[in-house]
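Moderator note: this is an archived Q&A kept for reference. The question asked for a predicted structure of one protein chain; the sequence and the answer are reproduced below.
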Amino acid sequence: MIKMAGLILGAGLISCESLVDNMNTDLNNPTDASASLILTGAQLGNVSVQEGHLARVAAMWSGYFTGTDRQYKDIYSYNVTGASFNDVWQFVYQGVVEQTKLVITKSQTTNNRLVQGIAKVTRANALGTAAACWGDVPFSEAADITKFPNPAFEPQIEVYKKLQSLLDEAIADLESGIGTSPGAADIFFQGDAGKWTEAAYTLKSRFYMETREYKLAYAAAGKGIAASGRSLVVTHGSTLNVNENLMYAFIARNRVGDINAALALAPKLLNPASPNYHGNAKTDETARYNHHFITVNASGTQIPVSPNTNSTTTSRGLFGQSAPYPLITFSENLLTLAEAGLRSEGVEIGLEKLNAFRAYLNGGGDLDPTYKTYPYRYEPYTAGDIAPGGMLNKDGVQAEQALLREILMERYLTFNGQILGFNDLRRTRKETVAVQLPPNAGTALPERMIYSEAEVNSNTSAPRPVPGVFIKTPVNL
């Protein structure tokens, strides 16, 4: 199990190689570590980037969660400052970028291309999230304070191009067959090059989606994660303050009452009793609704609809204490094939790929086994369902638009609690059939996170004036 206490920046990143080398060295202040130990630390740092504060903010700004108390009530209403993002910025650049550079440097001395490839995918995951959320970010000059004390913020679109090159390098490393496995030090795949290669291709497809290069996204997803058991997920446990799901730790234990889902859009779309219910004659969302959300707490008390943090042997919610958290998954890959396939290859391919995802859902999909006792049904759609007047096209739009609407809705519901949902909403906001998300406050929807206050104050290259939350990032203009 992953020791989530290691997410404190630097923890687990350093270790003394030998207790007998240089007895004059203070063993309480080690200065070096093996590539494998540093890799573990970098992976844990990326977990904090993807699953921590950034994901909670994205979820509140995407209609998944509602901020109800303390600073989360303000953040929910888009009142946020750069100080709120200091820690996550540090995790990206010190916890992941700097550490993966060390991993690669150390691995190059032994020509361990396998470990280099894993490190590059990890770095791409963190930097890709940073680029999506903030826009222009440091890339080439990042984490080299000696040469670049004020690293340049590179244009967002250029960063995406460099991310694709980084992932191409990673794939070449992973497919080279050269290098010794890091074993358990790789907390996700234990050095399985094939799984890491598939994750790299799915990540490439994600970035192509975010830059609207749909043909390239479709091609990359075709080589992406091929089965649910090959998804990149964070495995959690039930040890207090050690390996818990970070969403659970925050919502259900550390900051009880700060977040629920009472005003959120997603539960309304999944709840069969809601007038906004998304289901139809071929779709029963009862199980997914109950897996994702609760209205009764562990004590049996009625509560506002909230993210499901149930953690018993008979009820393990999406955000339960030991629930896995998705980073790069089979579900994402299938849905990318559906949307990118529709946009680049046509309606027939889009429908085929959406039905492949629905078949996965119909077999239980990402449901925890404790929720498969609830009804669920995802029968395949036909061309008639998306034709004007069909089940998915009561308003008589073109079949292509009706299918796109269904795919975008499915992506929205699937990415509950993930940063991906926020990225999708911004990318598709101009689409006439996009998910319609009402603002939490005022009349405008948020377009980006705010740059870290610490970074702005210390880096003369940081953008000035600092763009506000409603300023679109370049790829979404």
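Archived answer notes: The longest helix spans residues 86-108.
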